[in-house]
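Q: My labmate handed me this sequence with no annotations at all. I'd like to see what the chain might look like in three dimensions before we decide whether it's worth expressing. Could you predict it?
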Amino acid sequence: MRALIIALFCFLFFAAHSQTAEQVFRNYRDAMGKWSSVSYRMNKIDTFTNGTVWNKTGFALIKKSREARDLGFIFKAKRDDVDAELVFDGENIYTVNHMEKSYQLDRAPVEKRIVGKPAGQMILNEAIDTIKNFQSIALARTDTTFILRFDFADTPDFTDRVIHLHIDIKTYFPVLRYFTQVADGRYTQVIRLTDVRVDAPDIERQIREKEFLNSYTYVPQKETISRLSSLVGKEAPDFSLTSVDGKHHQLSKKRGKVVLLDFWDIWCGPCVQSIAMLQALAAKYPGDRFELVSIVTDKRTYSKIADFVKAKKISYPALFGDTASADGYYVYGVPQYVLIDEHGIVRYAKSGTTAEIGSIVAGFVNKK
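A: Here is what I predict for the chain of 368 residues:
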């Protein structure tokens, strides 16, 4: 048995050392196509042409996912020197501040929102998409890694562009990336990964569990506040949506009474906590003068809404939202409230929890 083990080791050793650069690159490319999830810590060192050095550390958890628009993966990432943690669940981008116990939400195209962000810098491109458009490739080895050298053609702006990619000899996952180029001086970047875990069963759970939604405060972004403010004084965008009991609700047919739109989701702690207040508000005024309409924004929870409404004994309509209604009212986070007067004009629009909604509604209903 000992002789067999030694023979197997020798075979694997010499097989590894006899591979060409092209074979190793092929194996690396295949391995990057097969992994499902990965987590790691990163140390990134940038040395700029003027001699300035940035030395940053952080972590990332990544899970490939077909549901993830734009990117093809969901993730959680953070750079150690900033408070903001970035979470993308396939639909929404959350910027979470654990120190302040607050979060922001963004539904804008994902790539535009992570490029350049501190947490986004912790995503290793070579783990997501293999290196392309190189001019030549060469191979070196250590006891634990393959080292692929990629040389690139010069351009009018850059010369001497080279990437050295260190790949784990067992998993073919990149563990170190060294990049250099010349443009009015030499720029280098060294990225080292540690604590690498590939396809660990808890990675997806850690990304998808968003406990902060239950207890942290939602803080609208400045652009969200500005867009919401632009609705006030204008005719409310019309919609026709279906409620959990199968009834159709068209906003324009509710003219003649004050309407409060409550955009919410069942995973939103502040939304759930406000249900009792909204129930009391809906019961306070006669139906011909006031109507409260709730709109669920997350399509992934639609199958659970009917049971949730029944369990909470919600008496006001709960509608299944769509992209048009979310876009029309600039719904980038929940809860969000929009008050519409009897003439169909938006009089109030605010994202996030608020204690003033009761008095705002009373002011408009009692004017009639």
